[in-house]
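Can't paste images in this forum, so I'm doing it all in text. The chain is below; anyone willing to post the predicted structure tokens underneath?
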Amino acid sequence: MTLSIIVAVTRNGVIGNAQGLPWHLPADMKFFKETTQHHTVIMGRKTAEALQKPLKNRVNWVISASGTTLPEGFIVCPSLELALESLQKHHLDEEIFLIGGGMLYQYALQHNMVHKIYLTEIDAEIEGDTYFPKLDANIWKRVQEQSYEKDERNAYDMCFVTLERSI
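Text version of the structure:
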């Protein structure tokens, strides 16, 4: 089992605002869906509340120490460690995705739990209240990238980047 992060980040590090995305980028949403579909996703309570319902074609785990009641289809677990321990037993070959929010990303990165990052770099500075942690270039190596130019449906240029832990 490997743990990966998938996240879209602006030039100024913003990943969210007011418990939502401060942009509408269909190309990024398509990338997110294609990458995470038929996998297990793990999210924090605020991300789950913002979604309001589980993501289709995925197993949806929520990390919440408060034992929050969420709609049917979410699996609530008190810690990331316990969720991963439970998933390890049944998903040995699967890639598991952390999909937010900021505190969960920071915790997983600080504790060296993440193996890969799928990073959408949004070529814009957008106001927000949630930020992605700075990544150490000595640890994370770019192994793939694909540019996407803004168009009538996507207001910003983007680059879909895959980073892998090198140490």
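The longest helix spans residues 26-36. The domain at 1-8+25-94+106-140 is CATH 3.40.430.10 (Dihydrofolate Reductase, subunit A).
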